Prior knowledge:
It is a single chain. Helices cover about 55% and strands about 10% of the residues. The chain is built from 15 helices and 10 strands. Helix 3 (about 55-70) crosses helix 9 and helix 4 (about 75-90) crosses helix 6. The longest helix is centred in the first third of the chain and has 20 residues, at about 5-25. About 45% of the residues are buried.
Amino acid sequence: MNTSCEYLLFSKLSAIFFKKLRLLSVLWTAIVIVFTSGAVYAAPEAVSSDATPQEIKLGDKVSEEIEKRFTVIVNPVYKARVETIVNRLLPYMERNLIYDVKIVDVKAVNAFALAGGKIYVTTAMLDFVKTDIELAGVIAHEMVHADRKHVITQTARNNRMTLLAIAAAIASKGEGAAIIAANALQVAVMGAYSIDIECEADAYGIDALTRAGYNPVGMLTLQERLKEESMKHAYVDPGIYQTHPEIDERIDAAHTYMEKHDIPVNRKYALGNLRTGVEVRSGDLALVIDDEPVWLGMDDEQTRSLFSRVSSDLWDFLQLETVPYDVRVDGDGPDETFLIKSRQIARSIELPYGTEPLTKLREGVHGALSRARNSHPMADYYK
């Protein structure tokens, strides 16, 4: 995870520019007066055009400062992993930006987009995500920031300027451009967006993920896990999901958005848990969930067929959000039936000789469900 030293590195990077801001306040005031006419930009702007020259210039300037201080990793596997996701999401962005993705060797869990389409993902982020579903959530969020000009929008808000004034300052070759670049760096790298912009990036990201065929729940599970990390390490700033209380608002907003759009919140696919299988353990045939045996029988063809079918059904119907009392055994003796909700999974009458009773399967599944939830404790599974 991110360390206090790396947090200081990010802060120092911004501080280099902000010293100029304090020394040149008079010049800055003049820029504002000339270009703003008192206007304040207050809402994210819907756009449809390609990157403007101002976006490209600002992105290049900030990118130059980032790459002076952090090592860009030339790793074809990392690069291909991220670019595959970008290319899959690209048709569902509003603008046709050219996304230039780079991996930086940083121990802070972070990803950020610059104006114009440059995207940076840290090696720590690649290690932190559980699955490519979670990584796709990260990338979609950052692509939306670039697509909808969020860096420039937030920079305009921070300095009480219109987009016209920001564009003029960026186009200048003087201190105005340096000051804007400093603020843009702070916004992008430190994730210093307002909550409405962050929620907009989440919402549009969820739409893009869904349309591209990704499970959008990865965006939600990553937020929940980063919240857990922030509680473990109060000094850590986890990059795009900072440790301020707004993370709770984002989690709630993402969950509500998915519920409103009838997107099932099934976390196990994004987290990669509750995985089922059939293995031989110490001479017995075992039905396993997350590598833990939950049901045993004799290693013969009939038992293997039954266990394989039950394993497949558990993968399809057992979710982290399943209420424990919905995993049950109904009936008595030969009429016992193991169910998940109303779905019949197995009956005692079909159990081969030497197979543990269905009550053992129920206990094993309950245990696996409890372990999986304990590994991801920040989720509200019954919401």
